[in-house]
Amino acid sequence: MLEYTDFEEKTIQRTEIFHGKIIDVAVDDVALPNGGTSKRELVFHPGGVAVIALTAENKMVFVRQFRKPLERVILEIPAGKIDPGEGNSPERTGARELEEETGYRPASLEHLYSMYLSPGFANEILHIYCATAITKVENPLPQDDDEVLEIYELTFEEAQAAIADGSICDAKTLFALQYWELLELKRRKGLA
Predict the structure, then answer these.
(1) Of residues 47, 70, 41, 52, the one with CA closest to residue 180
(2) Domains of the chain by range and CATH?
(3) Pick from 169, 173, 170, 191: which is nearest to 182 by CA?
(4) How far apart are CA 78 and CA 6, in angstroms?
(5) TM segments (predicted)?
(6) 3-state SS, residue 190
(7) Residue 49 in contact with residue 79, Cβ under 8 Å?
(8) Would the N or C end of the chain have less CB density within 10 A of its end CB?
(9) What is the DSSP letter of 8?
(10) pLDDT digits over 41-90, tens only?
(11) What single string gives the DSSP state of each residue in 40-61?
C-alpha cells in the first residue's frame, strides 16, 4: 500500500503574490516524490458556508446575482465566506448569510457535508447546511454593501428547469438539488 510520503510534495520555497479581501495567492516551488521539481500556484481562502433552505410550501430559496468571473447572472443557494471570528462556527456563518441574503432565519441548521471545491489549486472548504423551519424576519441583517441580489423560491420542477436553461450551474447548488431530490424520494416512500 502506498503511503502519504509516496505522494508528498515538499515546499522548497514559497513566493507570496497577493493578499486580498477574500483570497491570498502564492506560488510554491516543490520537490516531487519522483525526484523532480515543479511550481504550484495556490489560492488560500477562509472557507465558506452554503445553506439549503426549504420553505413550509416545499420550495427552495435561491438568490439571483451577477458573478463577475462568469460575466453572467446565475441562481444559487444562499452562501458566503466565513468572516474573521466565525472560523470555529460555520453554523453561525450559515445563519448569518441566510438572513442577510434572503431575510429568512432558521430554527436550526443541520450540517450535511464539507467539501473542498478545487483542491488542485485552492484550499477553500465549503460547509453545507440544511435549514429547518425557516421564518421571515421583520428586520433582517443588512446585505453586504457590494451585493445586489434577488430572492427566488422555486419548486423542485422549477429548479430543474433552471438547471436545463443554465441559470443554475454552480456545484453547491447542483449538490443542493441532488440532496432535495433524495429528500423527495424518501418522503414519497414514507421514510422521511
Answers:
(1) 52
(2) 4-44 (no CATH), 48-188 (3.90.79.10)
(3) 191
(4) 40
(5) none
(6) coil
(7) yes
(8) N
(9) P
(10) 999 999 999 999 999 999 999 999 999 999 999 999 999 999 888 878 89
(11) EEEEE---EEEEEEB-TTS-EE
